[in-house]
Amino acid sequence: MMNKKMILAVLIPCMGITASAQDAKVEEPKGKAIVQVFGNLHTGFGETNDDRGFELERSYLGYEYNLGKGLSVKGVADIGKSSKVDDYHRIFYVKNALVSWKKGNMTLNGGLISTTQFNFQEKFWGYRYIMKSFQDQYKFGSSADLGLSLSYKFANWISADAIIVNGEGYKKIQVNDGFNYGLGLTLTPTKGFQIRLYGSINESGQEGKENTANIAAFAGYKNERFTIGAEYNHMFNASYTDGKEQYGYSAFASMKVGKSTDIYARFDDLYSNNDWNISKDERAAIIGAQFKLGKYVKLAPNFRMNMPKADEAHNKYAAYVNCYFGL
Questions:
Q1: Model's pTM, two decimal places?
Q2: What phi, psi does 19 have (nearest 5°)?
Q3: Residue 24 lies inside a defined structural domain of this protein
Q4: CB atoms closer than 10 angstroms to residue 277
Q5: How would DSSP label each residue in 245-258?
């Protein structure tokens, strides 16, 4: 008969092989699909009563793959509408095509990347499918561009990031020379409370045109029950034109009132110096609720009011039911 030592010598390697096989079976897949669809049903009131119907606003389709050792690749297509073509058409853009490398507290992104100008505020707001964050809504910058970004977390309470991109967004090829340089600082003085500071210079690359500069400051608090945030944004030499400035602020709040129900509200105020952009300057407010229908679907009924600052311009009122599907 085999003694105990011989039995153990046979069993231990077999147990190791079995454990490895089990680990291999439960190993999570390295890739994941990206599917996000934004739509709505809306109707105006009064003068805008004819503005009503179903709308497919935007679809994101893509894939992200983890290569291991901190490397990952991501590609996302953006299918949306353009103001330059008939609304019956949809335009296909490449939104992201990038390589990311994470090493310790550092993250490096290269390619067609998400920009850092208002990405933090957008995530804090949390309802992108209902309404864009302030800077995106009023065209202070682009959400994606071709270039490089680097971020580093120095401690739990402070991190910094830098970005250099073409400065013309992801919907245009590089027409003009020059880059957009940005620096950001994120502070977390205490749990849930965060401050974000950002500044950028976008070179015009054109003779007779001025560089555009952006500065932004944001502060917000978030816990399991509610979120509150406020931001101030200022753009100098808008559209590369000397002396033209746009500035304004946005304040928002949301609260959980059930396991799958939130309520939210937001107020925006946009200005231009010397009223050069008075036809588009406005105050805007939104209030509504969000219902999560399972893991992948959200519905968000809301009421909106736009208050133009131009003389003799009338307020606009609308009711929306925004919907989201995403994996």
A1: 0.88
A2: -65, -40
A3: no
A4: 19
A5: EEEEEEEEEEEEEE
What gap in Å lies between CA 205 and CA 209, rounded to an integer? 8
Query: 178, 235, 248: which is closest to 206 by C-alpha?
Result: 178
The count of other CB atoms within 10 Å of the CB of residue 116 is 23
Calpha distance 228→223 (Å, rounded): 9
What is the residue type of 240? Y
In a domain? residue 34: no
CA 293 from chain centre, in angstroms, equals 22
Q: What are phi and psi of 20, to 5 degrees?
A: -65, -40
**Structural domain includes residue 67:** no
CA distances (Å), origin 32, targets 73, 148, 185, 297: 11, 23, 30, 18
Give domain status of residue 83, yes or no: no
Question: What is the rounded CA–CA span in Å between residue 141 and residue 163?
Answer: 13
Which stretch of DSSP H or E encloses residue 14?
A: helix 4-26
Task: Report the DSSP beta bridge partners of residue 152.
Answer: 106, 160
Nearest partner of 326 among 301, 299, 302, judged by Cα: 299
**188-240 per-position pLDDT tens digit:** 999 999 999 999 999 998 888 999 999 999 999 999 999 999 999 999 999 99
Number of residues in the chain: 327
Residues 202, 245: Cα–Cα separation, whole Å: 14
Q: What type of residue sits at position 81?
A: K
CATH at residue 147: 2.40.160.10
